[in-house]
Design brief:
The structure is a homodimer. Chain A has 7 helices and 3 strands; from the N terminus they run ααβααββααα. The first copy, chain A, is an alpha+beta fold. In chain A, strand 2 and strand 3 form a beta hairpin. The relative contact order of chain A is 0.14. The first copy, chain A, binds a DNA duplex through residues 15, 17, 31-33, 41-45, 47-49, 52, 63, 65-68.
Chain lengths: 112, 112
Amino acid sequence: MVEYRLDTTFRALADPTRRGMLANLALGDKSIGELGEPFAMSFAGAAKHVKVLEQAGLVERRKAGRKQICSLKAEPLKEADSWLRQWETFWSARLDRLQELVEQHSKEEPNG
Amino acid sequence: MVEYRLDTTFRALADPTRRGMLANLALGDKSIGELGEPFAMSFAGAAKHVKVLEQAGLVERRKAGRKQICSLKAEPLKEADSWLRQWETFWSARLDRLQELVEQHSKEEPNG
DNA sequence: CAATTGTTAAACCAGATGGTTGACAATAGT
DNA sequence: ACTATTGTCAACCATCTGGTTTAACAATTG
């Protein structure tokens, strides 16, 4: 369903600069210049990061005069979270024994 | 706290082969050969993916005779999920108006 | 039309990724 | 000891990344 999008979403999130930009956008819309400002980086460099976020569907741009205002689009984050929650049982301590049971079933070689 | 680990975790998840391997591991422990089998890929290629997962702390290996059995470690997934849930309010429809309010506060230029 | 501001695009670089092949090591079975 | 199985490692390749600089384009202001 959204499998193909997980690639770009997770990739976009794999960079601290981009996560920082998202955090910044959470406080309100920002221009590309404003987004890049905290990161001691060239404008073009910041613009590349924004483009990655945009291609992942995490930010949307709209023109406002000569600026382009970026706003957060959380939908892909929701999808990524949905995917991650599939694994909830595996980090839930109460179900550690379930995992052990699964192991018992697939285990073929005895080990000491 | 775990910020540095988010980099490697999200990156590891950004590849469909590796997500597939994780899904496979959820069914029980597997050797590297078994993990690579479904992907029509050289053994060495699969081993590289496993290494990425291992460095992200998502799989753990233990020797069992001449095989090395990989098992799922969900802790980093939990951390990634915790990070994502910070954004829950932004994809929750009920709080769309909150986002609008934030926008109002940071907005400086009127747009038509 | 010119100056300023905001953004895009292109060329370039070092390093990482995803993949291959081939040589090698270690274990299990005969 | 030999062979088959399982895995490691290094070399190699094409492509992507994250970053730079520089130049060009677009829109607003004057």
